[in-house]
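Notebook entry, structure prediction.
Reason for the run: the old model in the group folder had no record of what sequence produced it. Starting over properly, with the input documented here first.
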Amino acid sequence: MSLHFEPDGTPFVMCEKHKIKLEKEPITENFYVKKARDELRETPENIENGLKELRQLLKCETNLVIPLDEDEFLLKFLRPAKFYAKSAFERIQAYYKFRLSHQDYCQDLFPSNVRVAFDHSIISILSPRDENGRRIMFVESGEKWNPRDVPLRDVFRGVQLGLESAMVEPRTQVCGVVVILDMKGLSFTHIMQFTPSFAKMVVDWIQDCIPIRLKGVHIVNQPYIFNMLFAIFKPFLRQKLRSRIFFHGTDKKSLLKHINKEALMMRLGGCLPDNEISGEVLWKMLHHYEESFRRADSYGYITNNNK
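New structure, fully documented this time:
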């Protein structure tokens, strides 16, 4: 499996008949247009008003450096907020304050600096999208994850990079993301990597900061000791996120009730090859956008007045 390029230079990966690439083009298909209108209040009038109101709010945030003149940048916050400018503004504040408060996890978040989790195929993005248009992120959280090779910090940074790339896709902004965590082989060694403070940070990031529609978290192949790990996270989960976490164990039919088999690997009960997209090839595709990631990484709150 290797990287290919469209005539315009856009990189993509082919696996059998499926193509995966960053779909940055505007929404034109009726399916996505209707979904955006019905679920997110996306109409020409709401887009215009949302952008105008959000810019007015952001102009008062004088110590925040972001590309105010770029509609695409603001839309990735407006869509999850259903075009309510105040909600989008609060999400932008929370997102960049999180990055400021957790620099060890968020600083220099671009492909050349975030590679190890992809090289070990801990993180991959499946293709095609599911029947609801959602992107599917697959995370190996058990036997394929050796914390000595890939520290927990690097796993989280890899997840961030994967979701940051999905955030720039208008289709994903509209339809959202589903995450599948494969816990097969989870051990005490894995669980010992987690602390309550790390769990709180991750849950805060998901619930309050990242501008993405997280439509479901599916836990598969979890052993009994997974209950110890979930107990660390559970106190920080609000009802909305808790209601979107599903536990399937080894029951493939249970997972298929939520995601069609055409969008899942064979070992999960689907049709896709088990090695559908390797993390290494996915990283090469993301690395093509290195400069875009570096530019995005430069945005945020200014803490040094001499900067």
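Summary: The CA atoms of residues 55 and 68 lie 7 Å apart.
The old model has been moved to the deprecated folder.
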